[in-house]
């Protein structure tokens, strides 16, 4: 499943959650508006003898208060949805090692490392990844070393040891999470 499909699925889920939130909070917002309108009405009656400008300023303050409270409620819910969505996305990405496409993903990781490091490098991975990678034909210049500390992905190191490509699923997610989070926050309506 591509990142675009994942983002589209998350976007669709987010839109459904936002609709439910809008429905839930519209009653709360209406109550705030009614409360403020009641206060405005009382203030209008109380200040009927005062100038129109004074009343308009007070009304504007309450209207601004309504807008700010409404915006805060929506922003808080957006943040909550964003946190939940990012947790789900992290869980999905880090569980890719259980998918049937995982061997192909590992092969793509090695090939991407080759683009970055050249033809001669060492791939460090745990036993499970090493077994899956043995099903593919790679040049002899690529060495595979088992490292039990590496989970869900690979770390490739150039032959001279000066460059490293971290292709562990958790590292990939960490690398893209800021951009994904920004995209989601901007597109939650």
Describe it for me?
This is A-type ATP synthase subunit E. It is a single chain. The chain folds into 2 domains: 3-94, no CATH class; 100-168, 2-Layer Sandwich (hypothetical protein PF0899 fold). The two termini are 25 Å apart. It contains 5 helices and 4 strands, in the order H-H-H-E-H-E-E-E-H. It is an alpha+beta fold and 189 residues long. The chain has a 4-stranded mixed β-sheet with strand order 2-1-3-4. The protein has helices at 3-46, 52-94, 102-117, 127-133, 169-187; strands spanning 121-125, 142-146, 155-158, 164-166. Helix 1 (3-46) runs antiparallel to helix 2 and helix 2 (52-94) runs antiparallel to helix 5 (169-187). The model has no long low-confidence stretch (mean pLDDT 81). 14% of the residues are buried. Helix 4 links the parallel strand 1 and strand 2. Helix content is 68%, strand content 9%.
Structural class: alpha+beta
**Biggest pleated-sheet summary:** 4 strands, mixed
Low-confidence stretches: none
Rounded Rg: 27 Å
Q: List the secondary-structure elements in sequence, H or E.
A: HHHEHEEEH
Mean pLDDT: 81
Distance between the termini: 25 Å
Strand coverage percent: 5-15%
How many helix segments?
A: 5
């Amino acid at each position: 499943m591509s990142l675009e499909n994942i983002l589209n699925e998350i976007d669709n889920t987010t839109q459904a959650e936002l609709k439910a939130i809008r429905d839930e909070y519209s009653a709360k917002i209406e109550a705030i508006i009614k409360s403020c309108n009641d206060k405005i009405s009382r203030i209008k009656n109380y200040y009927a003898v005062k100038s129109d400008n004074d009343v308009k300023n007070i009304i504007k303050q309450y209207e601004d208060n309504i807008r700010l409270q409404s915006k805060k409620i929506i922003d808080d819910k957006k943040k909550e949805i964003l946190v939940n969505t990012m947790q789900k996305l992290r869980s999905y990405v880090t569980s890719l090692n259980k998918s049937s496409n995982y061997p192909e993903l590992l092969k793509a990781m090695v090939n991407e490392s080759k683009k970055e490091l050249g033809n001669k490098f060492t791939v460090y991975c745990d036993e499970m990844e090493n077994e899956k990678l043995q099903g593919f034909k790679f040049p002899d210049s690529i060495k595979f070393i088992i490292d039990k500390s590496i989970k869900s992905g690979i770390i490739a190191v150039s032959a001279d040891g000066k460059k490293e490509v971290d292709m562990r699923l958790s590292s990939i997610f960490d690398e893209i999470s800021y951009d994904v989070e920004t995209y989601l926050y901007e597109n939650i309506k």
